[in-house]
Design goal:
This protein has helices at 4-25, 40-44, 50-54, 58-67, 70-73, 94-102, 125-135. By secondary structure, the chain is an all-alpha fold. The longest helix has 22 residues, at 4-25. It is rod-shaped. The protein binds heme C. The site of heme C (HEC) has 27 residues, from helix 5 and helix 6.
Length: 139
């Protein structure tokens, strides 16, 4: 004969079973609440690819632009100083900007003289890519 407490246990188990079956039927919903699911691509990305995936450090690029003296010759708008204003230069492409920095006499912008120093050729590649990232934000 069943005792009262056993009936209680069975009811609880039955309720849990129903919950579990129901949970499976609605597998597409998050059974643990309303937290936003982490996109699978992020969750599975190995830590080592992080630096590559995160791209240029724009803040460092801006710092370099001022610290290296680029801003002494280039405005971030469209007005000329010694060199052309760099707003919109991103449209010329990463390779063009890269060459403009490391080998400035390769292409001389119309209306300007070959006055940009060649010393930036010795910059670290990561700083150049940060500079390019920053210049592409100028519009
Ligand atoms: C002494 C002045 C001077 C400094 C400092 C200087 N530049 Fe220049 N830059 C110029 C001049 C002049 C030109 C145009 C002539 C030419 O194309 O080389 C130019 C051209 C460029 C261009 C091509 C622009 C275009 O519209 O095609 C880019 C990009 C550029 N500079 C980036 C930089 C960056 C980044 C730095 C700092 C790391 C820098 N420059 C430092 C004078 C300077």
């Amino acid at each position: 004969m069943l005792k009262r407490s056993n009936i209680l246990v069975i009811s609880v188990l039955a309720a849990l079973l129903l919950f579990a079956v129901n949970g499976c039927a609605e597998a597409s919903e998050n059974p643990f609440g309303t937290t936003t699911p982490v996109p699978i691509t992020d969750a599975l990305a190995p830590a080592t690819t992080e630096a590559v995936a995160s791209g240029p450090d724009i803040a460092n690029g801006e710092k370099e632009f001022k610290g290296l003296g680029c801003s002494g010759c280039h405005s971030t708008g469209s007005n000329k100083i010694v060199g052309p204003g760099l707003a919109g230069v991103g449209a010329k492409g990463d390779d063009y900007i890269h060459e403009s920095i490391v080998n400035p006499s390769a292409v001389i912008v119309d209306g300007f003289s070959n006055l940009m120093p060649t010393t930036f050729a010795s910059l670290k590649e990561s700083d150049i890519s940060d500079l390019i990232g920053y210049l592409k934000t100028l519009n």
